[in-house]
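step 4 of 6: structure.
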Amino acid sequence: MSQPTTDGAKFDEIVHAPNRLQICALLVTADRAEFAAIRDSLGVADSVASKHLKVLADAGYVKLDKPQGEGRVRTWASLTKEGRRAFAGHVAELRRLAAGLDVQP
Amino acid sequence: MSQPTTDGAKFDEIVHAPNRLQICALLVTADRAEFAAIRDSLGVADSVASKHLKVLADAGYVKLDKPQGEGRVRTWASLTKEGRRAFAGHVAELRRLAAGLDVQP
DNA sequence: CTCTTGCTTTCCAAAGCGGAAAGTGATTGA
DNA sequence: TCAATCACTTTCCGCTTTGGAAAGCAAGAG
């Protein structure tokens, strides 16, 4: 009865960019990740990772936490509820586009 | 038992660009389409449609036919076997990225 | 032979991308 | 305490991509 994939299908350019798509994919499974882990996972320079995270953060899709407990401050990224919705919507749209491939797996 | 989606999963930048992704999606269902139909479906100018089709054609992903039968020559586009494979591979990769969303639908 | 159609190519400005390098603020080691 | 280091962030830079307008071009219509 539930059709979670065909609901808010909406192409999102912010999410679509390859590196940001990877970030979203990473965060949707990991729930949160350290800056360095994201950067290494993408295989890009610090600046690049930082800028893409900023784009996602400015869009309200990612929350950046810098918890100042003991030791150095590290940045943790996580998807916001809105980010999760945007990613899900984008994926839904991609699925819609890909629907013609075979029978839907 | 068959896993057609996890096979040649390969991110393809040529396919990934939004307009070209739409073209591929269109052609994978329609089998072939007229230039004007593609252009209108994308909602872009002639030149833009032409250039994207050229990129796909140069990559060997799309075949452009100009059958000169009766009347004016119109351009028909269709996916090549390689184009179909590239699109399928790209979609497989996107699915892999999106796998964390919920339970795989 | 000229006009229109159906693209293709060229020209242009705007935007996006990635890396290097410089900058910032906090922490840590001597 | 004070310079060095860490963990990013921002700026700078060159390059690529993108889209639309406009000019080109080949072929069929009138």
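step 5 of 6: annotate
 - DSSP finds five helices and three strands in chain B.
 - Chain B touches chain A at residues 4-5, 11, 13, 16, 18, 21-22, 25, 28-29, 87-88, 91, 94-95, 97-102, 105 (CB under 8 Å).
step 6 of 6: archive
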